[in-house]
Specification:
homodimer; 21% strand; disordered N terminus; 9 helices; 9 strands; 5-stranded antiparallel sheet; DNA-binding; globular; alpha+beta
DNA sequence: CGAAAATTTGACATGACTCAACTGGAGTGG
DNA sequence: CCACTCCAGTTGAGTCATGTCAAATTTTCG
């Protein structure tokens, strides 16, 4: 399996990054050797540079993407051009516009890499095929989404019950890595406040 | 199949409400006759009165609940006792505290019936067994949760990008039935605003 | 009918936004 | 190495959306 270039490399099958992925799968389901190799055969490796887009709104979301290394943000744009960060993604997270992927209609969301990011991807056809060949994968994705759903619910709740300051403090606790890696204005957007207001909050905290 | 009482009736197996449920299942997966009867055998019918709780926070969420008729709200309480409505549920929706159900730990959420509500339920053990006997059900629940997840995401987005007034107008459009059935203060809570402010919004609109 | 619950109203407070100006790096090029 | 620009972050003044609290009113329902 040979790739042309460090940048934008793309390859299929068993690969250096596949090992840890299969190990991660074991947290959810148990696969036979054969099933593992079917899974591997459907997955694709890819690297993105900082700033590159995994998905742009208007395009159809062709892959579900598992982040091996790096980080991304999912965001969308209002009619007036303002951006809203919906979520961040880091190692061991899945990203993608589920609705667009399921219905193969244009996506509302953008997914952009914040660092050089290595991912594993699967496209719609291969995933459908994978579900057929390895039904346990239905369970795997059910479990993943279930977890993501619970997280989202908790987040909505917090938006309602906590002040911007408390939300920021919680964010710092939960994603300490992010504080380093992500520009502040994106964090503000994720928290649902303006960059200016986040700035004053930070000042308050440090005093 | 005989039930003791109209209130709090509980029964198992094929039942008047089971037919429409199986029809609803067909929107997502195709089952053989035999599989259908296995599914039916795991499900339980139940009715709740207005005000009754399907789940109380602190208890373990023992069932996933499909609403045949009626409506519910899912909410939780802050330390200071204030309530936050996380979601409403009506006909053809599933409700339950997924996290509590999955891990069989105490729930954070309360689920309360807003009307007399007829439901179909399945408990954890039966669902595990059902997944084993009818693996297609994994797919079914994956699809359901996927949809719910997309909805939640859209909701978060709206909370960030829309004013309280616009959120209310959208709510009226999307859930016209709710406006009739649900007390205003719960809608306010769902929208993340106070009941007083919702009241002034409504006044504005009607002018 | 009467009591409790839900809604409305108004005065006032405040959290968060807007806008515009300023600061301070991190390139970039001469 | 300096001057320049560009981008992120900070600051402050003024404003607006929304919250708080308390009282008045309406609706619901036993």
């Amino acid at each position: 399996m040979i790739t042309n270039s460090v940048f934008n490399m793309r390859s299929r099958g068993i690969f250096a990054t596949m090992e840890p992925f299969l190990k991660y799968l074991k947290n959810y389901i148990t696969l036979t050797e054969q099933e593992q190799s079917i899974v591997s055969s459907k997955l694709t490796n890819r690297s993105y540079l900082k700033g590159q887009y995994i998905l742009q709104s208007g395009d159809v979301c062709r892959h579900q993407t598992y982040i091996v290394k790096g980080s991304v943000r999912t965001f969308c744009q209002d009619d007036d051009g303002s951006e809203h960060v919906i979520s961040f993604g880091i190692e061991k997270w899945w990203v993608g516009d589920l609705e667009s992927f399921a219905s193969q209609t244009p996506a509302d969301f953008n997914i952009q890499c914040l660092d050089k990011t290595d991912v594993i991807q699967i496209n719609r056809m291969d995933l459908d095929e994978l579900y057929r060949q390895v039904p346990k994968m239905e369970r795997f994705f059910r479990l993943i989404i279930q977890k993501a759903y619970s997280n989202l619910q908790r987040r909505i709740l917090r938006n309602y019950s906590l002040s911007a300051k408390d939300r920021y403090l919680l964010f710092c606790e939960e994603y300490p890595e992010m504080i380093q890696r992500v520009p502040q204005y994106m964090i503000a957007s994720y928290l649902g406040i303006t960059k200016e207001f986040l700035s004053t909050i930070r000042k308050q905290i440090s005093l």
